[in-house]
Amino acid sequence: MSTRTARQSSKQQNERHTAILRELVKQPSNRRCADCKRNDPRWASWNLGIFICIRCSGVHRSMGTHISKVKSIDLDTWTPEQIENMKKWGNYKANLYWEATLTERDNNFERWIRSKYEFKRFVKSNDIPDPDTLPNEVNLRYIIYLLFFYI
Q1: Any alpha helices (H) in 25-136, and if so which ranges?
Q2: What is the pLDDT of residues 35-70, one digit of tens each?
Q3: Which of left, alpha, beta for 15 (phi over 0: left; psi -120 to 50: alpha)?
Q4: pTM of the entire structure?
Q5: What is the spatial distance between Cα 59 and Cα 101, in angstroms, rounded to a whole number?
Q6: Adjacency order of strands within the sheet including 70-72
Q7: For the domain 4-149, what is the CATH code?
Q8: Span 89-117, pLDDT tens digits
């Protein structure tokens, strides 16, 4: 494969990955930051499988890459493995694990994020589950549709 062909292939792959991420972030549970619930997150922690806002991405970066690996949805290059992890998790499934025993949030958002991911304060088990074993997000519109037409 020539260098030019390789570059074109790489560019096409990046465009596909960006399109996939843009579709994932449109899903109901991903439309808001996984941590502070701000609208329209444009960043992600690919190893945690979550979409986050720019403010929370700064806290994630400060924890170190051994805890959270942050990338821009639009500006960075993603590997197929990173995309697959985002597809497997998403905010809903990730928060089922990271917020399993949560009773109330800390108002200090940096302390809250560190408690959640660095210190694993709200998890039931330190063993991170296979995301395929967790329930999928419930589509409320679909449930309303079913109730309206079939009951």
Answers
A1: 54-63, 80-88, 90-98, 109-113
A2: 999 999 999 999 999 999 999 999 999 999 999 999
A3: alpha
A4: 0.84
A5: 22
A6: 50-52, 43-45, 70-72
A7: 1.10.220.150
A8: 999 999 999 999 998 888 898 999 999 99
